[in-house]
TrEMBL record:
<keyword id="KW-0731">Sigma factor</keyword>
<feature type="domain" description="RNA polymerase sigma factor 70 region 4 type 2">
    <location>
        <begin position="117"/>
        <end position="163"/>
    </location>
</feature>
<keyword id="KW-0804">Transcription</keyword>
<dbReference type="InterPro" id="IPR013249">
    <property type="entry name" value="RNA_pol_sigma70_r4_t2"/>
</dbReference>
<dbReference type="Pfam" id="PF08281">
    <property type="entry name" value="Sigma70_r4_2"/>
</dbReference>
<dbReference type="InterPro" id="IPR007627">
    <property type="entry name" value="RNA_pol_sigma70_r2"/>
</dbReference>
<dbReference type="InterPro" id="IPR036388">
    <property type="entry name" value="WH-like_DNA-bd_sf"/>
</dbReference>
<feature type="domain" description="RNA polymerase sigma-70 region 2">
    <location>
        <begin position="21"/>
        <end position="88"/>
    </location>
</feature>
<dbReference type="InterPro" id="IPR014327">
    <property type="entry name" value="RNA_pol_sigma70_bacteroid"/>
</dbReference>
<dbReference type="InterPro" id="IPR013325">
    <property type="entry name" value="RNA_pol_sigma_r2"/>
</dbReference>
<dbReference type="InterPro" id="IPR014284">
    <property type="entry name" value="RNA_pol_sigma-70_dom"/>
</dbReference>
<dbReference type="InterPro" id="IPR039425">
    <property type="entry name" value="RNA_pol_sigma-70-like"/>
</dbReference>
<keyword id="KW-0805">Transcription regulation</keyword>
<protein>
    <submittedName>
        <fullName>RNA polymerase sigma factor</fullName>
    </submittedName>
</protein>
<comment type="similarity">
    <text>Belongs to the sigma-70 factor family. ECF subfamily.</text>
</comment>
<dbReference type="InterPro" id="IPR013324">
    <property type="entry name" value="RNA_pol_sigma_r3/r4-like"/>
</dbReference>
<dbReference type="Pfam" id="PF04542">
    <property type="entry name" value="Sigma70_r2"/>
</dbReference>
């Protein structure tokens, strides 16, 4: 059997002709597609799809011409379709990922702002001396020693007032300890020097 006989028999739905063409061209087509994609599994999938297309469109084949050019054209077009589909899917995935990140950033910013507001509200409820000390240290960045000098009190009193403030703030955020740490950092908490 040769290619032209195979085409004529294929049009009569002879499976033996299909097998002949498959055996003759399968490995060649896989190698051909691999020159583009360097991926044997994907190349095999494309070539299998090529033979499915050959079978489905067998009536369109020219009885007097080898199907070789047709098979290579189908394989190439199937490969290009796969590339386009892959790029489209990647673009969609990238857009979804970007959208999710944007939402997460906005959500985190909103949540952080709410927490900062809550810290400010808790600070407003502190006794006047305690409130002034925490604001001087955490908002203005003044060290404990300098606060003690400016207010005419001992460093131990500053430390004691800071403990009171931290206790009240911790109580307000008792289920939110990790985020409390981030807020203290943002409010410059930890400036004891």
């Amino acid at each position: 059997m040769n290619d032209i006989e195979a085409v004529r028999m294929l049009k009569k739905e002879k499976k033996r002709a299909f097998k002949y063409l498959f055996d003759t061209y399968y490995n060649r087509l896989v190698a051909y597609i691999m020159t583009y994609n360097h991926n044997k599994a994907q190349a095999e999938d494309i070539v299998q799809q090529t033979f499915i297309n050959l079978w489905e469109n067998r009536q369109k084949l020219d009885d007097n011409q080898s199907p070789k050019g047709y098979l290579y054209a189908i394989a190439y077009n199937t490969y290009m379709d796969a590339i386009k589909k892959s790029k489209k899917q990647k673009k969609i995935i990238d857009e979804i990922w970007e959208h999710a990140l944007r939402d997460r950033i906005e959500e985190d910013s909103e949540t952080q702002e709410k927490r900062i507001q809550k810290v400010k509200e808790v600070i407003e409820t502190l006794p006047p001396k305690c409130k002034k000390i925490i604001q001087m240290n955490k908002v203005q960045g003044i060290r404990y020693k300098d606060i003690a000098e400016q207010m005419g009190i001992s460093i131990k009193t500053v430390e004691s007032q800071m403990r009171i403030a931290f206790t009240k703030i911790r109580e307000a955020f008792e289920n939110d300890t990790l985020l409390l740490f981030a807020l203290f950092k943002k409010l410059r908490i930890g400036n004891k020097d």
